[in-house]
Write a structure and sequence with these properties.
By secondary structure, this protein is α+β, with helices and mostly antiparallel strands. It is about 25% helix and about 30% strand. The radius of gyration is 18 Å and the shape is elongated.
């Protein structure tokens, strides 16, 4: 697998093949390659988003053209959360298309995990279960213990994709750079506390030396 088409639709995966009437032409590292869609992949790609600008930041989890994330309730509909709303207002699970999430968080970093189909199915189930759980038994948002990042980590754990367990977008960003993510789109490059022995951490250091 060398290519993933990430847009507002179901994810599609492509492999390098010999040129034929069914292949698509693309440029990879300055070289023309021919790709063909894998119609029955035995894997999936899941995206983890970390927005680390501002006082609070944000985290999200994406697949099949959607990004799932969690917010406090915007009680006055200002589209900007007040300090009082970060504590003990109802937790809201939000779903945006990939493009709308990227428009809202244009500087977010994105990390790609190659998962088994079973892990992807587990994640879809975990996301649906969380949505139903919040409808039946509402919970309060807490900047310390029940926020966007803690919920993303919980969903990754329940699906068996990652054991990461942190409470802040910046810390999640650091952990993602040390993880076994197969790729990333890094818009923000803070190098504090990055593990140089991790493949992506080493890559980020090399690019900035």
């Amino acid at each position: 697998m060398v290519g993933v088409n990430l847009n507002d639709n179901e994810d599609r995966y492509f492999n390098v093949v010999s040129k034929d009437s069914y292949s698509h032409t693309t440029e990879i590292n300055g070289k023309t390659e021919y790709l063909q869609e894998d119609k029955n992949p035995n894997y999936s790609i899941v995206s983890v988003y970390t927005e680390i600008e501002g006082a609070v930041g944000h985290s999200g989890l994406g697949y099949d053209g959607k990004v799932f994330s969690f917010y406090p309730t915007d009680e006055n509909n200002s589209r900007q959360f007040e300090m009082t709303e970060w504590w003990f207002t109802p937790l809201v699970m939000d779903t945006k298309s990939t493009s709308k999430f990227s428009d809202k968080y244009p500087n977010s970093n994105v990390f790609f995990f190659k998962t088994t189909n079973e892990q992807k199915e587990n994640l879809v189930s975990a996301v649906n279960d969380r949505a139903n759980e919040l409808k039946k038994n509402p919970e309060n948002y807490s900047l310390q213990s029940n926020n966007c990042t803690t919920n993303v980590c919980s969903l990754l754990q329940k699906s068996g994709i990652s054991s990461v367990d942190v409470a802040r977008p910046g810390r999640l960003d650091t952990k993602m750079k040390e993880s076994n993510a197969i790729g990333s789109f890094i818009r923000q490059r803070p190098l504090i506390n990055i593990n140089r022995s991790a493949p992506l951490g080493r890559k980020l250091y090399d690019e900035n030396e």
